[in-house]
Structure formats: C-alpha cells, structure tokens
Predict the 3D structure of the following.
Amino acid sequence: QVHLQESGPGLVKPSETLSLTCTVSGGSVSSYYWSWIRQSPGKGLEWIGYTYHGGNTNYNPSLESRVTVSVDTSMNQFSLKMTSVTPADTAVYYCAAGTSLLFDSWGQGTLVTVSS
Amino acid sequence: SYVLTQPPSVSVAPGQTARVTCGGNNIGSRSVHWYQQKPGQAPVLVVYDDTNRPSGIPERFSASNSGNTATLTISGVEAGDEADYHCQVWDSSSDQAVFGGGTKLTVL
C-alpha cells in the first residue's frame, strides 16, 4: 500500500494561490490515479480532481476554472494549485491514491486556512 | 449533479447492529464505496464495489446496494467503531466523484 504525505503552507491570503504537494512512497505516480479531496470544517468530503497516467487530469466541474493538478514523476510527487482562494476554501486537504472510481490510500491531511 | 443523502447521525449500543444508509436516485445501478473516518484522522476505505471488504477490514463490516438505497451494516458494534461514515460513487454523467454528507456513528 502506498504512503502519501501532504505538504504546503497552512495559511493563504484571500485572492492568492493555494499550493500543496503530495509525496508518494511505495508506489509510482506513473501508475494509478492521484487525487486531491478536501473537507471543510464540520462538513463532508469534496473531490477536487485527479491526475493519472503520468499527466492526464480530470476535475470537479465546480472547481475546474481555479484548479490545476500536476505530477512530477522525477520526484514521485503530485501537486495542487488553486487560484483566487476565498475563506470558503478553508479546509483540510487530503491527497489520495486509487482507481478512477475510488480512493484506497489517503494522506493524513493538511489544514489550509484562508485569511488575511 | 448526482446527490447522495445520508442521515447525520446513528446511535447504537455496544454489541448491537448499526445500519448507515446512503440514498440516491437508482443508486443500485452504481458501485458504492464506504469510508470510515475517525476523529482527527483521514478516511479509510472499508467497503468497495457495493459489498467487498479490503484486506484488514473485519467481517463485521458488510454492505448492500439496491434500488434507491445503499446500506453499510456493522455487526457487533464496538466502541472503536465510533466514527463518521461516508458513502461515495462515481457520477459518469458529470464525470466526478460524489460523496454523501457523512453519518456520525455514536456508540452509546
């Protein structure tokens, strides 16, 4: 089973860009599907998007205009960039691995707060 | 997009059977996956493709899916089963993963 670890700033100012990285061990980012999922405080889970097959992507239509998921095969990492953030983007962000349909390994999650 | 509806909470005494439902239009035609999320932790997959358990998940966890309701059943509930449970499907019409709102299981 793969191990995933999120990293990135815990505080982002409104209107700026949120950037997170997920480091993968025990598996190659050239295989499987690599997702970002978030959970706002006290709320349910929201799928953001995924990258697969070394660079293809698919996004949640509600976030697609602001989100980019990319992969760095040399570092065995994948990343999330979300532009023009607002306080509504405050959440715990998880990276996850799986198939195109489900998520069978998750990182521990990282809290990102959007505030000035 | 497709909507999954879960009850906010379910309570059960230790040793009893807990049932967590997940409602959706003709959900029986879709593959449903269930995740357990303990406080302060990441979700863990406990059932996939309606009825299958990943390795390491106790047999006490089972599930079914028919019509407009999928159900996660936990038999012989233990204190350690207290957690939020989330159902999830892939919505091919909008090409995205969809989660239910989550159900908090309380062990009395």
Q: What stands out?
A: The two ends of chain A are 39 Å apart (CA to CA). The mean pLDDT of chain A is 95.
